[in-house]
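User: quick one, fold this
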Amino acid sequence: MRCRPLPSHAQHKLVYMYCVV
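Assistant:
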């Protein structure tokens, strides 16, 4: 499973992790 950080929206100041199996 590969996971890579994705830029969050302007509203959210958090970094989402996009994981692909």
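User: anything notable?
Assistant: The mean pLDDT is 64.
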